[in-house]
């Protein structure tokens, strides 16, 4: 019964927060965190805690895989140096700075490094949700950084926990080997599972089975890497980026109609559950604190948050100048980002699910049987930092206005170019294809007319008041209205029991497909 209550609560919270976000300029993620805090005040509902391994082994692979499938590999390649540096050097620098600050606040070096490693990575889900309307290059760099840096942070985290509890010895060679194998093993595991998934799915012609194979893929990549003690996070990311390049050639339209809406809905629900969990955990951490006073804990949260944010600001306003000093190629100069525009990247260092799962997974005892030092304070600090960094999203619109980001028309321009190019290819191949298929002349004329109409629409995209676009708008509106009348007629037949519900649903599906085709046909949308 409790699980059902949580499901209903999550659904209501998601709908309500989404509706409020449409009305007020507040991201749904922040509202969900607030709802989680409020839920923590209800004794019966504060049990809503996910085991950390569920977040790391179930939620994280699915969310990372979807983010990898929907990001731009071309932009990642173009900004590879930035992505690599932020996902490795910046993570290590943040972990070290947080560890030093935490040690200065009274934590022993072991717990301080555990906290630093947990808070070092930015969160892919939070970046995708809170920074989605930024220019393509900015969003891609932020998402790529948050996809890869989890691997570096989790290696540092595992090493810090192992040394603290007494399981591992800290040596330079040991750290180097763990990091190297984490990356290499993760890449190999992700590439291998990607190749296997590609070969399996290219032989499938059942949309449902192919969708199931797609669902299993990220978990298989994570499992293989984890079994080899490599980075499961990096394995999922590599697998997702590989599949994003090969699946357009092997996936049928029917499969995409099933799989893509399913993944969009599922990842929205999963990410919403995580934001709700952040709020619940933050409230619980304050309530369960017993190793120090609330006042000191709040001071610790503010200091560590300032360090996390400050390191990112320092990084954003130092490393670009160092790169410019070392790389003076003309191509590099063209990719320089002005100082004002870099404020967006500085503010967008959100923390989230990985940090929460890592700190909650800290063991309660050492190998000696003694309690893990200051574990409750570490959980509280981590939850506070996550909430405060997420609140930076409230400043993001103002920061974007201050940054004066150039209007990014590249996606719209490439979309129009792709439409025109593909339509030209179809028109050019029409005669030869019709001859191969034995199509009649009337059929050829009908198809040619439809292609010509689409070509004119593509060429007129963006021209307000163009006669072709006005004609298409009128045609689409009339067609949609008539589809609505057909639906009413179908319901009349069903209500009069002249057709069965099964027949109603089948005809309705065809009408839905036609409606979606008309809605998507406009190149301006």
Q: Tell the overall outline.
A: globular
Q: How large is the count of helical segments? A: 23
The secondary-structure element order is: HHHHHHHHHHHHHHHHHHHHHHH
What ranges have pLDDT less than 50 throughout 5 or more consecutive residues?
A: none
Measured as a percent range, the helix fraction is: over 70%
Would you tell me the structural class of the helices and strands?
mainly alpha
Strand content: under 5%
Mean pLDDT: 87
Summarize the structure.
By secondary structure, the protein is mainly alpha-helical. The chain has helices at residues 2-23, 28-39, 52-69, 73-78, 80-104, 109-119, 124-130, 136-165, 172-201, 207-227, 232-250, 253-288, 294-316, 319-326, 330-334, 342-347, 353-360, 375-390, 396-403, 410-437, 441-459, 467-495, 501-521.
């Amino acid at each position: 019964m409790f699980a059902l209550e949580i499901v209903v609560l999550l659904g209501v919270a998601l709908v309500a927060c989404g509706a409020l976000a449409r009305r007020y300029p507040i991201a749904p993620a922040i509202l969900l965190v607030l709802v989680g805090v409020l839920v923590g005040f209800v004794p019966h509902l504060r049990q809503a805690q996910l085991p950390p391994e569920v977040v790391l082994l179930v939620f994280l692979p699915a969310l990372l895989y979807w983010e990898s499938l929907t990001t731009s590999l071309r932009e990642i390649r173009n900004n590879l140096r930035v992505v690599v540096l932020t996902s490795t050097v910046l993570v290590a620098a943040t972990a070290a700075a947080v560890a030093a600050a935490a040690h200065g606040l009274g934590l022993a070096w072991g717990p301080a490094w555990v906290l630093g490693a947990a808070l070092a990575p930015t969160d892919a889900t939070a970046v995708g949700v809170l920074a989605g309307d930024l220019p393509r290059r900015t969003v891609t760099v932020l998402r790529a950084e948050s996809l890869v840096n989890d691997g570096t942070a989790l290696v540092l985290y595992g090493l810090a926990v192992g040394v603290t509890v007494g399981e591992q010895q800290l040596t330079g060679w040991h750290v180097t080997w763990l990091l190297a194998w984490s990356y290499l093993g993760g890449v190999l595991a992700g590439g291998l599972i990607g190749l296997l998934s590609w070969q399996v799915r290219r032989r499938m012609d059942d949309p449902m089975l192919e969708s199931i194979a797609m669902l299993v893929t990220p978990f298989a990549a994570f499992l293989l890497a984890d079994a080899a003690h490599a980075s499961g996070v990096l394995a999922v990311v590599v697998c997702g980026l590989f599949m994003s390049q090969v699946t357009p050639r092997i996936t049928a339209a029917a499969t995409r109609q099933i799989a893509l809406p399913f993944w969009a809905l599922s990842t929205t629900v999963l990410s919403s559950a995580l934001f709700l969990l952040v709020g619940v955990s933050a409230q619980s951490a304050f309530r369960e604190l017993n190793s120090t006073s609330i006042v000191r804990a709040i001071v610790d949260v503010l200091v560590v948050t300032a360090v996390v944010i400050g390191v990112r600001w320092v990084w954003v306003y130092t490393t670009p100048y160092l790169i410019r000093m070392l790389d003076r190629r003309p191509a590099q100069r063209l990719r320089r980002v002005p100082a004002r525009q870099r404020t967006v990247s500085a503010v967008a260092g959100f923390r989230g699910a990985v940090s929460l799962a890592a700190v909650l997974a800290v063991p309660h005892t050492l190998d000696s049987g003694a309690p893990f030092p200051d574990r409750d304070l570490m959980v509280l600090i981590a939850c506070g930092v996550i909430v405060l960094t997420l609140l930076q999203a409230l400043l993001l619109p103002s920061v974007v206005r201050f940054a004066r980001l150039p209007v990014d028309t590249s996606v719209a321009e490439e979309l129009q170019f792709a439409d025109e190019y593909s339509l030209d290819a179809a028109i050019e191949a029409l005669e030869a294809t019709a001859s191969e298929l034995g199509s009649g002349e009337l059929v050829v004329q009908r198809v040619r007319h439809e292609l010509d109409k689409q070509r004119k629409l593509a060429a007129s995209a963006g021209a307000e008041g163009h006669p072709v676009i006005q004609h298409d708008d009128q045609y689409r509106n009339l067609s949609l209205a008539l589809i609505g009348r057909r639906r009413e007629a179908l319901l009349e037949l069903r209500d009069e029991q002249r057709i069965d519900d099964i027949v109603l649903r089948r005809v309705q599906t065809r009408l839905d497909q036609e409606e979606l085709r008309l809605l998507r046909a406009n190149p301006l949308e």
